[in-house]
Write a structure and sequence with these properties.
By secondary structure, this protein is of the alpha/beta class. It is built from 11 helices and 8 strands. It has an 8-stranded parallel β-sheet with strand order 3-2-1-8-7-6-5-4. Strand 2, helix 2 and strand 3 (about 60) form a beta-alpha-beta unit. Helix 1 (about 15-30) packs across helix 11 (about 240-245) and helix 5 (about 105-115) packs across helix 7. The radius of gyration is 17 Å and the shape is globular. The relative contact order is 0.16. The structure holds 2-phosphoglycolic acid. 2-phosphoglycolic acid binds near residues 9, 171 and 213.
Amino acid sequence: MRKNIVAGNWKMNNDLSQTQALIADLKQQKEAGRCEIMIAPTMPNLYNACELLRDSKIEVIGQNMHFASHGAYTGEVSASMLKGIGVNTVILGHSERRTYFNETDEMLAQKVDAALAHEMRVIFCFGEELKDRKAGNHEAVVATQIKNALFHLPERAWKHIVLAYEPVWAIGTGETATPEQAQEMHAFIRKAIENQYSAVLADNTSILYGGSVKPNNAKSIFSKPDVDGGLIGGAALQAEDFFTIVNAF
Ligand code: PGA
């Protein structure tokens, strides 16, 4: 059975004291228990976040990692370093990483392999740009991203993969895909997994939507049958807003 998940991607926001304050606020919130909850603070604050949330239902996850296990890669962190501080899930392939840090499908395939080799769970992000959607290429673009980074995996590896469809034109713009657009793409992705692997695997894979999910639109997006949760940016920086979204299931 696939899981419902709401994950907050804090991006490059919140220093140590702000991280501690937001976590304290998050711990005060009531949750309905209908989904898994995750937050992705910045790298320097991950360890402290893990300590603060040790006995909580909120899982602390990484925003990125390198594919090498160690070595001369200035500024990077490895899967084993994340695992060593208690981070067992990592976001890979976010469009900001692809755009600003030139991450390619090939690099992402290596990162996915490295995460899985360390028994980490991956939230794998992909999505089309506005020009692709306008040209009607959005399904082809997304299918290629998924195929290039994930379709080399054996079926058994997929229990560690969560997908996050994030149309680039909807990230941080206030513009959201309509629930119908999200559903249409999620159903397309599920079909692609079925064609490559099996109907059972397709049905068991969680597919999150990301891109301007807010307290006032989360319910309608999450109500769609193939939307299994959200990857939340801006609205994850405020505890009440984040939990309104968590409780939208
Ligand atoms: P947003 O970001 O909610 O601020 O649009 C989503 C994301 O980047 O995952």
